Structures are given as structure tokens and as C-alpha cells.
Amino acid sequence: MKVVMITGSAGGIGKAAAERFLTSKQWKVVLCDVNESMLFSTAEEFGNKYGSENVIAAVMDVSNRGSVDKAVEQALKEFGQIDCLINNAGITRDGLMIRMKEEDFDRVININLKGVFNCTQGVLKHMFSRQTGSIINTSSVVALYGNVGQSNYVATKAAVIGLTKTWSKEFGKRGIRVNAVAPGFIMTEMVKTVPEKIMAPLKEKTPLDRFGEPSDVANAYYFLASDEAAYITGHVLSVDGGLIF
Ligand SMILES: NC(=O)c1ccc[n+]([C@@H]2O[C@H](COP(=O)([O-])OP(=O)(O)OC[C@H]3O[C@@H](n4cnc5c(N)ncnc54)[C@H](O)[C@@H]3O)[C@@H](O)[C@H]2O)c1
């Protein structure tokens, strides 16, 4: 059995991803999230469904290095190895540039970008020592096109593409693959608050004529983590129904 550590997996895409790995019966899952109540209820749900020996819950704030290191330590103590890290946790704090608050800019950078740095560095020594592993970062369709009102978020999601390409070069000879997934608009809490007048035209521009489901992204994570993707690194896989802004 391999072990995947998924940040932000108490809900949304991360939770769907955890379930995708667990249903394969080839992976154990370390659920990581800052929302303790959601985290423990997801862990209990999956423990009941897929066996409590296959799931652990690690409370983790990706923006806090101490908390990340503690979660990695817990995962290694309980499961002995980490084969894949999915840097999925992310937030939005939208606002037009003219009035974006500095604290909203900093918060999004600290979670979406510094969090990816923290978690990757947290597992890296372990992966280097085993000369194998895979890291999957979560970008976004908006990193490729830009989006009004999301300067902070788009900056982090574009940066994550830069990290993916840089790390694929830096870690490749150590047997570690690094890829990114760039989801389009996926029906989770993150987009449920976006007004209909913004969502409707986006659906119009989506050739596959629907918004994405968390499982659509989960399947892409699963593929990139699997041995079927053994010769793929430094890639950004769009999962967006063909959406063009
Ligand atoms: N939903 C979309 O349309 C969409 C599109 C493109 C990219 N994404 C990206 O996909 C990822 C998952 O998004 P989602 O839609 O499932 O969001 P979500 O809000 O439904 O879930 C995010 C999870 O991350 C957790 N989280 C937040 N801050 C954290 C922190 N500091 N430390 C640890 N966990 C934290 C939350 O508690 C939550 O469980 C994010 O990186 C997001 O930017 C989402």
C-alpha cells in the first residue's frame, strides 16, 4: 500500500480526492486540514467506509511550518512512508485591486503559496531519502488567463506553476515527479458564493457545457500520482471542460 497526504481534505476537492484514493484499495490516506471538526468527521466517515487502518487525520495549518512538520511526523509514525503529497489546500479573498486589503493579499499568499512551500519542504527529506515520490500542486484555470478581482489568488496559482516546473527539474534525478492540476470552475464551497450573473457566462464558455465536480479533479490527481504517470513530470493538467476565458 502507498500513502498519500492531501492538504485541505476535510471537504471539497480534497475530500473527493481522498475517497478516490481509498476506493482504489491501493492507497492509505493522510487527511490534513485546519478545520478540525470537519477533518475528524471526514476521517470518521472514511474510516467506517474504508477501514480505520487506512485513514488518519492530521490537524494542519499549511501556513504554519511547525504545524506542517508535526503532521508529517504523525504520518510517518503511523504509516511509515509518504509516497505522494497533494498540495490542495487553498482559499480566496477576492476584491478589486484598487481596494484589496493588504491582509487579504498576505493571507492568500501565506496559505496558497507559502503553504505549498512549507508542505513540500516538510516531506522532501523523506522523499529524497527513499529516492521516490510524487508531488501534485493545485493551480487554477485563472492562473493561465487572469481574473478580475483575484489579484492575490491568481498570483499564487501562477506561482504554483513556476514551482511545479522548477521542482520537476530540481527533484527529477532524485526520482520525484512534480505536476500540477489546473481546475476550471468546480462545484465546491469555494465557488458556491460566486453570483449567478458571473457563473452563467462561464458555463457558456465551457465546451463541455457543465461546471466540474470535485471527482473530476480527484481523478486527475489520482492519475498523476499513479504509476501510469511514471514518465510525466513538470506538467500542468487542465481539468476545466475546455473553458476558454
Ligand atoms: N473549486 C474551484 O472551482 C477551484 C478551481 C480552481 C482551483 N481550485 C483549487 O482547488 C483547491 C481545493 O479547492 P476547493 O474548491 O475544494 O475549496 P474548499 O474551500 O471547498 O476546500 C478547501 C479546504 O482547504 C482547507 N483549508 C483552508 N485553509 C487551510 C489551511 N491554512 N491549512 C489547511 N487546510 C486549509 C479548508 O478547511 C477546506 O477543507 C484549492 O487550492 C483551490 O484554490 C478550486
Walk me through the structure.
The radius of gyration is 17 Å and the shape is globular. The longest helix is centred in the middle third of the chain and has 29 residues, at 102-130. 46% of the residues are buried. Helices cover 50% and strands 16% of the residues. The protein has a 7-stranded parallel beta sheet, with helices on both faces. By secondary structure, the chain is an alpha/beta fold. The protein contains 9 helices and 7 strands, in the order βαβαβαβαβααβαααβ. The protein has one domain (2-239): NAD(P)-binding Rossmann-like Domain (Rossmann fold, 3-Layer(aba) Sandwich). Nicotinamide-adenine-dinucleotide is lined by residues 7-8, 10-14, 33-35, 38, 60-63, 88-91, 111, 138, 140, 183, 185-186, 188-191.
Q: How would you summarize what this structure contains?
A:
This protein has helices at 12-23, 36-50, 65-79, 102-130, 141-145, 151-171, 189-192, 196-204, 214-225; strands at residues 2-7, 27-33, 55-59, 84-87, 133-138, 176-183, 236-239. By secondary structure, the protein is α/β, with parallel strands linked by helices. The chain has a single domain (2-239), classed as Rossmann fold (3-Layer(aba) Sandwich).
Tell me the β content: 15-25%
Tally of DSSP helical segments: 9
Poorly predicted runs are none
Q: Please, what is the average pLDDT?
A: 97
What would you say the CATH architecture is? 3-Layer(aba) Sandwich
CATH superfamily: NAD(P)-binding Rossmann-like Domain
Ends apart, CA distance between termini: 41 Å
Number of β-strand runs = 7
| Global geometry | globular
Rg of Cα set: 17 Å
Class, according to the CATH hierarchy? Alpha Beta
Helix content: 40-55%
- Distinct small molecules bound, one entry per kind: nicotinamide-adenine-dinucleotide
Order of helices and strands: EHEHEHEHEHHEHHHE
Query: Strand order of the main beta sheet, please?
Result: 3-2-1-4-5-6-7
CATH topology: Rossmann fold
Structural class: alpha/beta
Main sheet attributes: strand count, strand direction, barrel closure: 7 strands, parallel
Count structural domains.
1
